[in-house]
Amino acid sequence: MFRSIQHSGDILLQRHQDFDPQPGAEPGFDPDLPDGGHASMPSLSVPCEITVIDFSAERMVKRHFDNQAFIAFLQRPKDDWACCRWINVNGLSWDVLQAVGSQKGLHQLALEDVMNLRNRTKADWCVFSFFHYLFGEADDADDADDADDADDDDDDDDDDDDDESRYPNHAYIVLTLLKLVVHQKNDVQTSSASPSSLFNFLRRPPTQADAPESEKGRRPSPTTLLPPPRSLHRFHASANEARTAMMERESLLAPRNMAVSAEQVSIFLTSDNTAVSFFEASAADVERPMVTRLATAGTILRASCDASLLVQALLDAIVDLALPLTTVYSDLLGDLELDVLTAPSISQSRSLYLCIAEINKMLRFLQPVDGLVNALRHHRSPDDGVVVSSVTRTYLADVLDHCIVICDALQQLKQSSEDLIGLIFNTISATQNESMRQLTTVTIIFLPLTFITGFFGQNFTDFPELHRGIWYFWACAVPTAVATVLILMHDMIYSCRS
């Protein structure tokens, strides 16, 4: 049963229980504090699957870590031969995020964006010298800026790598976006969990019961202990479980045992040529093709040793994962269109409405990616921190094309769904109008007969026509009916003869 409006207070309370925020509390999560400045943070822990890839044009090394091993590994300096590093974290755990934030100098607001799963798609630039102003060290920052300006005057012809080397290690770009993937329904979190189940999962230690049936009885890996990706209807959803379950049950994908999963992805591009990506649960979808490219000598990604190009490749992989959505929904609407054209019914309009609701939600997640990609393409100011290389800007145009293609296709599918709903109601309305026209025609045909019947049915004593027999009635009724039909069908007869 759906909740009524009087339960809105409970819904709002449940929606805001993820981080237990207090009005007026310090914004962000401070990596220098054990609890990040929030009492609930230490309990937000889950065993993560962490991959660190160091590579140069000649060599690539891939390492896998759990939480504690990765935290210890971060204290070691990067090998001299490694020109670029990619840190890929599958799972959101405060101890891992705290270690990365401390080592890379990530701002506490950026850390909050990673853990806040109701965030918007955006790109932020952060320069460490900017934070000196906040803490009253304006003079030092001014000196650093003057030194940078002097270097700019002397080295106008330096390439992008030389430009990036002048920035402090704590300059970075942070990207936040959504990943949409079509999965088998069994691989997606559906009605068995609440919208905030991820954080309920993180607040308790993992157990063997969290692993799939096939994995029980053996030592669980971090991946088996991570919660499955959430369905599209559960991402940024309300706390009304009945509504969410109904939307999942009535989805057009449900009869095909399919579902769309959604999860938030956060990517950091730091000035020391490092890319750090955080996934909620399904990093393998992106990691597999990326590792293949990095392991192959001679690829653009491997030869460039450019972290900004690595970020572009991550964005491209995330966007490409959404391409099958257009194909799947095109097939579904194609089948539904045939049903509408052959046997329209009101139940089909219900399915189309649910389809429009899903497409609207996907568009709400995908359309802001255009702005994010454009922001990266047009980011050329060295004063804003990390510089996006010219090669990366070139390939970002391809990502933008894919975004536009996907959004345009979804817009067309949405318009087609709306047109089909209009066609259903117009067809049903036309059918009803035709039925009313036929009833009206029959009524008009029998109206003279009704008059004649009423005439002969008068209860008068002196009525000579009543003594002439039934043939007299039909002698009057049949010619009258024939004449009425001829008059009504005059236009049809004339058009047939012409």
Descriptive notes:
- By secondary structure, the protein is an alpha+beta fold.
- It has 2 domains: 5-128 and 168-182 and 226-427, 2-Layer Sandwich (Beta Polymerase, domain 2); 439-496.
- The protein contains 18 helices and 8 strands.
- It has helices at residues 8-15, 67-74, 94-104, 108-115, 128-134, 138-154, 160-165, 197-202, 222-225, 241-249, 284-295, 300-304, 307-320, 323-342, 346-377, 390-456, 470-488, 490-497; strands at residues 49-55, 60-65, 84-90, 122-126, 172-184, 230-231, 258-270, 274-279.
- Helix 3 packs antiparallel against helix 4.
- Mean pLDDT is 77; it is low at 1-18, 129-145, 147-169 and 192-224.
- Residues 17-36, 142-166, 190-231 are annotated as: Disordered.
- Belongs to the CorA metal ion transporter (MIT) (TC 1.A.35) family.
Summarize the structure.
This protein has 498 residues and is of the alpha+beta class. It has 18 helices and 8 strands. Strands 1, 2, 3, 4, 5, 6, 7 and 8 form an 8-stranded mixed β-sheet that branches.
The CATH topology of the largest domain corresponds to Beta Polymerase, domain 2
Tell the overall outline: elongated
The appropriate CATH architecture of the largest domain is 2-Layer Sandwich
Query: In CATH, what is the homologous superfamily of the largest domain?
Result: CorA soluble domain-like
Task: Give the class-level CATH name of the largest domain.
Answer: Alpha Beta
- Tell me the count of domains: 2
- Supply the number of helical segments: 18
* Structure classification: alpha+beta
The SSE order reads: HEEHEHHEHHHEHHEHEEHHHHHHHH
Q: What is the makeup of the main sheet? A: 8 strands, mixed
Given as residue ranges, the uncertain stretches (5+ residues, pLDDT < 50) are: 1-18, 129-145, 147-169, 192-224
Overall pLDDT: 77
How far do the termini sit from each other? 63 Å
